[in-house]
Design brief:
heterodimer, A: mainly alpha, two-stranded antiparallel sheet, globular, B: 423 residues, two-stranded antiparallel ribbon, 16 helices
Chain lengths: 304, 423
């Protein structure tokens, strides 16, 4: 279930990397904005006494839209001017992305701080979705976990269809393959890049709400660690590949959950769950060192 | 034109002397500090004869600030912070600016240096070492550990660099980011199974080298000071000495065979490799040099603060140093020093004072009237504290610099050619 969230964030990293060759550090903040917007919507809808399903749906949709718009704006204001300059230095967009990420963190904190005088936000808990149900084979699962998985799978399925079946998907794939050639074939790369950011942002925003529903509390700095892990997931699956990002996210979630459960047993309680983050980062480092093209990615030789 | 230029230099010389005099005469006045800062900034930002620059910088840093600082130790504190920042920025400048390798885990090396002295200069080492007499005395061990911290940080830099530097630029950034986090998380969690770092509580008290000799000299000169002031002066001079040494090393490296190799790989890795540059060797050297600078400052930081904890070595710290390098100009030594000074002064002077000012207005319940518009400052939300929004300030600086002036305030010549002369 954590894996589903990672997978959805990983898709945003992977798609942007596909079309721009840029690690969009600001994507973890897009995810965070989704989580915060979701919390705000739920905070304002809970007193109305509506059915939780309606509140949650509204939160998911609003967060998706706001995150998508933010991602689009960031692309317009920060990344597009850089492409206009035509600098070939790869570090420039990367550093810009870090700057945007920091800017968004404190911007959200400032807005929340001015609005409520605090920036830790709680998700309301709905007893209806906290209940556990028993699946076949005796496994128990919370209803909210089922909801998270269902939403994630619907989003990922529709994204796969979008990329594989529609004209827009074809344009995205064309730009990812070779932006110059695509532009000669009548594809407008800027428009495609904008749309990629919008789609990735929407997925990230929805993932943010799901994350909030699962963990209950969010704040403006909540994006960093899941963002880094989602990037790990994207690399694990092969960055730039849509099914790869989903697979990587799910795998990383499973590895982390299993690792967190068994690590204390394996080390006789000497290393507790606090070491799982270290292991997630080590997975990332080792992966980049030994298999940088990931499980499903292709190895692209360096072009001169 | 030539004539007016010479006049400007004479004017600057006079301004420098007056600023130094003003600072000594009124050590407690923040406004008296401004002319001195302005002269220093001018020294670093403009072309001028080396002799004049050396004289003015020496006059202010070695004469005016120590004299004024003995009466107002805040000046030493500011000097130490700027000196540390400048050293860190110069170290990162070698990695990012000269060699073009984006290192996002730079605070990790700082942490390694800091913990090296913190563990052995405090009773902490006794917690996991069966033999030995801890804490180690400040003399001569502190000075030995400065070298050890440097070597250890450089060694870790080599160990990490050997595999990591095979990666392309953007993956390297993520690997170093991850490794920086691993260092911090290890510092946070290595209080069990074996207690090495004392976990999130941090280590305190950390030993300092004795400064009796300095106090005796000052007393001999007729101005006895308290040990606290003596330590402030000592760390100020130490940081200044290390920073000056590192400026010299940076400059020599920049003009060496390795400096040219770094620029070559930054411009075009494949072409450099084809021209016979051993990629991995020069990259690891850049990485290790940067790490070494950071490590030695880490040890000084630990002794100065008397306390280290994992909180001091976050991603934000790495980015702060990166902002200094970007603001000053990647690869430009003078620019980076200026950037470090600007970011530090902004951080500990401007933002903090602005916060204090707003707090003051809020508590006094000041009511602003502008034409028909009034604002009651007691209604100002308490979240509006500029000092806490350094991330936003840094973010804005980064984005604007990258879009409008990617070469930094004082672009390095070779870098400028690369960034501007492109189709």
């Amino acid at each position: 279930m954590l894996g589903c969230v990672y997978a959805m964030i990983a898709l945003g990293y992977s798609m942007v990397y596909g079309v721009l060759g840029l690690i969009n550090f600001a994507h973890s903040e897009i995810f965070m904005i989704g989580a915060v917007v979701g919390a705000e919507v739920l905070r304002h809808m809970t007193p109305l006494g509506l059915h939780p399903a309606l509140s949650l749906t509204t939160a998911v949709c609003t967060a998706g839209i706001v995150s998508a718009l933010t991602a689009g704006t960031v692309e317009r204001l920060a990344y597009r001017p850089l492409r206009r300059h035509g600098t070939v230095n790869r570090l420039v967009p990367l550093i810009t992305a870090i700057g945007v990420s920091f800017l968004l963190q404190d911007l959200v904190r400032l807005i929340e701080g001015l609005w409520h005088n605090e920036f830790y936000l709680n998700y309301p808990s709905y007893p209806e979705i906290e209940k556990t149900i028993v699946l076949p084979f005796g496994a128990e699962i919370q209803i909210k976990a089922l909801i998270v998985m269902a939403v994630a799978f619907i989003m990922m399925l529709s994204l796969t269809l979008l990329v594989k079946k529609t004209r827009m998907g074809k344009a995205i794939r064309a730009v990812a393959e070779d932006a110059r050639t695509a532009s000669l074939m009548g594809v407008n790369p800027d428009a495609v890049i904008s749309r990629t950011f919008l789609i990735g942002g929407a997925l990230g925003g929805v993932a943010g709400v799901l994350f909030g529903v699962m963990f209950g509390q969010v704040n403006p700095f909540v994006g960093f660690v899941p963002g880094l892990k989602a990037f790990t997931a994207a690399v694990l699956g092969g960055i730039g590949s849509v099914p790869g990002a989903m697979l990587g996210g799910l795998l990383l979630g499973i590895i982390e959950t299993i690792g967190g459960t068994y690590l204390p047993f394996l080390t006789n309680g000497a290393m507790g769950t606090e070491y799982t983050d270290i292991f997630a980062f080590l997975v990332l480092v080792l992966l980049l060192l030994f298999r940088p093209h990931g499980l499903l990615g292709r190895h692209v030789p360096e072009k001169v | 034109m030539k004539q007016s230029h010479r006049w400007l230099l004479v004017l600057l010389f006079m301004a420098g002397c007056m600023a130094a005099g003003l600072l000594v005469a009124r050590p407690h006045d923040p406004l008296a500090l401004l002319p001195a800062l302005a002269v220093l900034a001018a020294c670093f930002s403009h072309k001028m004869p080396g002799g004049l620059r050396a004289f003015l910088v020496g006059l202010i840093l070695l004469a005016a600030v120590p004299l004024a600082g003995l009466r107002n130790t805040f000046l030493f504190e500011l000097g130490i912070q700027v000196g540390m920042a400048a050293t860190l920025a110069l170290g990162l400048n070698i990695v990012v600016g000269m060699a073009g390798l984006l290192d996002l885990g730079y605070a990790g090396f700082f942490a390694i240096g800091a913990y090296t002295w913190a563990i052995f200069g405090s009773p902490q080492a006794a917690a996991f070492l069966p033999a030995g007499n801890f804490p180690l005395p400040g003399w001569p061990y502190f000075y030995l550990f400065l070298g050890l911290a440097m070597l250890l940080a450089a060694g870790v830099g080599v160990l990490i660099g050997l595999p990591a530097l095979r990666l392309r630029g953007d993956y390297l950034a993520v690997v170093t980011l991850g490794l920086g986090q691993v260092v911090r998380l290890l510092a946070n969690n290595l209080d069990h199974p074996i207690n090495i770092t004392n976990g999130p509580q941090g280590i305190t008290p950390i030993g300092r080298p004795p400064v009796d000799w300095l106090l005796r000299i000052l007393a001999g000169l007729g101005s006895p000071v308290s040990p606290a002031t003596g330590y402030a002066l000592f760390f100020y001079l130490l940081v200044l000495l290390v920073a000056a040494g590192i400026v010299v090393v940076s400059r020599r490296l920049d003009r060496s065979r390795f400096g040219r190799a770094w620029v070559a790989i930054r411009e075009d890795e494949t072409a450099a490799q084809c021209s016979g540059v051993s990629l991995l060797k020069v990259k690891v050297l850049a990485f290790a040099t940067g790490a070494a600078f950071s490590g030695v400052m880490g040890a000084i930081f630990a002794a100065k603060q008397l306390f280290v904890s994992p909180e001091s070595f976050t991603f934000l710290q790495s980015i702060t140093v990166l902002v200094m390098v970007l603001l000053g100009g990647m690869g430009s030594i003078r620019g980076v020093i200026l950037g470090a000074a600007a970011v530090t002064v902004l951080n500990i002077e401007v933002l903090k004072n602005l916060s204090d000012f707003l707090n003051h207005l809020r508590q006094a319940g000041y009511v602003l009237q502008l034409g028909g518009w009034t604002y009651d400052f007691s209604r100002l939300p308490s979240q509006l504290e500029p000092a806490k929004y350094e991330r936003m300030v840094f973010g804005v600086i980064i984005v604007f610099m990258m879009i409008f002036r990617p070469g930094g305030l004082i672009p390095e010549r070779r870098h400028r050619l690369e960034l501007e002369e492109h189709p």
